[in-house]
Amino acid sequence: MSTHTQDPPLRHQDAYAVVVTETVDDIEQLNELLHSNLPVLLVRDLDQARRLMDGEPPTGSGTDTPRPARLRVGRLEIRPEEQRALWRDAPLELTAQEIGLLGCLAGHGGSVASYRELVQDVWGASCGVDTTVIHSAVRRLRRKLEKAGVDVEIASVRGHGLRIAYGGQQTSVN
User: Fold this and answer.
1) Which partner from 7, 20, 121, 127 sits 20 to 30 angstroms from 134, CA to CA?
2) In the predicted model, is pLDDT for residue 97 greater than 60?
């Protein structure tokens, strides 16, 4: 029987681990190996890690295409860069995640945004976010929109993703 003495956990105020992986399971295994409580930054690839370390903002879906400044679904206006959403020019009380969801859906112009696209765009990950997380977030968003009297529909397209519409009309980008 071999005896293994564990090294003390790393305890440096500014320390963190950067993990290039596509699964959360890999992070858990790494934490066990390190025997630490280091903050962990999950990235999809080395290019993303380099961009983050250089202080560049995340690209979301992995493309360098800039997002439009304003998106409209009927009288709902989404301003992703400002982290704001307005209904009939009045600001809505939404979280950054909820605004991200609206922005992603509105950016698809009424067509379906796949679950994979939603995860990449809203959560900034290629995986590790289950569809139940998406559905929970959408349920909370629907409740807030309904409470505010916002007349838009976020529809689930079974097995594919979500889409947004206002009175059957398509969205527009300004």
Assistant:
1) 20
2) yes
